[in-house]
Structure formats: structure tokens, C-alpha cells
Amino acid sequence: MAVALKNEAEVGKGMPRLGLPAASLISTAYVVLGILVVYHGIPILFDALAAWWVAHVTEAIRLGGFTYESLKLVVTVLGAIGLIWLWPRLLREQPGLRAGAAVGTALAIVGLAVVYWVTALVCKYALASAEANTLYWGGVGTAVASGLAWTALMAALYAKPKFQEWLVSLEEQGWFTLKPYKKGQGLRVRRGTMIGALAIVAAGLWEYVWSRTITVTSQWRLDVPFDPERYIIVMYAPALTLSIVVALLAVWFSYRLVNYPRFADFLIATDAELNKVSWSTPKKLFQDTIVVLVTVLLMAVFLWIMDLLWTFLLFQIGVLR
């Protein structure tokens, strides 16, 4: 007797299922390298290919500044979309993986900063009087050693069962998914909350961009500690880049905030209470406003008269002179 088996769709057939620590560290490396490729690699490669094309093929296609930068931006965005599309096809989805990749990316960025400053301190103090060759290789060795040490610390952290449980619980809260919580309920209050949060961020970005001395065309550079003639471009156009990054993070955070189960339930309950409110008609609102204003005016006149009366009496009995 033949039995029909249901074929379950598999995600990420390119690699076998790994444990959460290994999958999270691989995902972290993929995200960090992807950021470097998208932010630095693709623009540099595009400029190099464009220069080679003009020099060796033809000069007839020479794009203007705006057109050239727009085409470079399109290619960069397409590269980012391709990397995002490729990631779930390399690693199988499992509970806690998205949270592990996000937390790992944050730790990796902090680790890069730690590696840089450790290397800079070693080159400044321990290798200050060394020759150029010794300074160079000593700095490279320090950077590699500190990077490996930070990676080992991350691996030890991810190997802890409690940390893995925390990653799974963090992902279950819905911070790393587009799926809404109780879709269709409390829409007015939830949308208003999102708009309020985004308005606060927008005001801060406006103040940051227009009131700071950071220009859109500047660059953030860091000198290489063991090679003074070289530098690392950390960020192009920091005012524009940071504004875009903060705006995207604000949109994502505000969307996930109103879909966070506990907070979303509170907003849904608030919206339900608002539905019970009996809103006044314009005529009734006008009449009530007149009553309030007249009452306030009468109370002000009464308090003024009482103030004059008591002042007169206290002067007559000698309390006030």
C-alpha cells in the first residue's frame, strides 16, 4: 500500500543545518562582510571598471556627475538586494538565528572599534620608538591577535545555553520579522504611536543635519596606526549616511514597537476604550466652551473682589501697613 508523504519546503538548502552558535557566527561574518562589500567594495569596483572602460574601450560613454553617481547607487542597491536574497538560501532557518545575527553584528562592530583602539595604543606606547618595519608588523600582529581574541570571546558567549535561550526569546518577541501582531486591531492608536515616534526622530535628524558642522560631502577617516601614510574611510558623507541609517532604524523600531505583544495589547485596549467615548457635536462643544470661559471669568472677578476686600480689612485692623 502506497502512502503519500507531504514534502516540506526547506529553507537554505545550500548548507546542512548547523547549531545556533555556529550559524549565528557565520551569519554575523556574512552580514559584516556584506556591509563592507556594499558600502566600500561595489563603489570602488564600479569606479575602477568605469575608469578602465573609458581608458581602454571607448570614451564616447562618459557619464556626467549626477548620472554617474545615480547609476553607481543603483548598482550598489542591487548588490545589497542580492546579498539579502542569498542569505536564507545559504543557511537553514532556525529559532534564534535572526537574533543571533543581529546581536553578533552589533558585537562585531564594537569589536572592530576595540581592535582599532588596542592597536593604536600599542603602536603609540609600546612600539613608539620601533623602526618602521617593526612598527608595521607589530601593529598588524596586534590587530590580528586582538581580532582573534574578540572572536573567541564571541564564540564562548554564543556557546552558553542561557545566551542561546535569550536569543530565542528575543526573536520570539517579534523584533526580527515583518509579521504584524494581531493584524487589524487598534490601527488608529498604533498608527498614531508610530507617527509620534517618527516625528521625534525626524525633529532630531533635522537638528543634526542643519545645526551641525558636519557637511554632506565630508568623510570620516581613521589613520592606520602602524602606517601613517594610509587611512581608513569609515563613512562617506556622514551627515547623509547617518540620517538615512537612523531614519531606517526608526521606521523599523517604531513598526516593531507597535507590534510588540505587551505594548500592542495596551494600544489595542486603548483604542477599544476610545471607541466607547461619546464625542460632542460642534454645537455642543461650542456651548460647553462658552460655559467654561464664562465660569473662569466669573471666578476671576470673584477672587479679585475678595482680594480687594481682605486687603482693605487687613489694613483697617493694622495687620498690613
* Poorly predicted parts: 1-12
Helical element count? 9
How does the major sheet shape up?
Answer: 2 strands, antiparallel
Q: Quote the distance from N terminus to C terminus.
A: 114 Å
Order of helices and strands: HHHHHHEEHHH
What proportion of the residues is helical, as a percent range?
Answer: over 70%
The number of E-state strands comes to: 2
Folded structure, characterized:
Strands 1-2 form a two-stranded antiparallel ribbon. Helix content is 71%, strand content 5%. It folds into 2 domains: 17-173, no CATH class; 178-274, no CATH class. It is built from 9 helices and 2 strands. With 321 residues, the protein is mainly alpha-helical. Helix 1 (20-56) crosses helix 3 (97-126). The chain has helices at 20-56, 65-90, 97-126, 132-158, 161-172, 187-211, 238-257, 261-275, 282-316, and strands at 219-224, 227-236.
Q: What is the topological layout?
A:
Layout: H1 20-56, H2 65-90, H3 97-126, H4 132-158, H5 161-172, H6 187-211, E1 219-224, E2 227-236, H7 238-257, H8 261-275, H9 282-316
Antiparallel strand pairs: 1-2
Helix pairs in contact: 1-2, 1-3, 3-4, 3-5, 6-7, 6-8
Labels describing this entry:
mainly alpha, two-stranded antiparallel ribbon, elongated, 321 residues, 2 strands, 2 domains, disordered N terminus
Task: Briefly say what this structure is.
The protein has helices at 20-56, 65-90, 97-126, 132-158, 161-172, 187-211, 238-257, 261-275, 282-316; strands at 219-224, 227-236. The protein has 321 residues and is mainly alpha-helical.
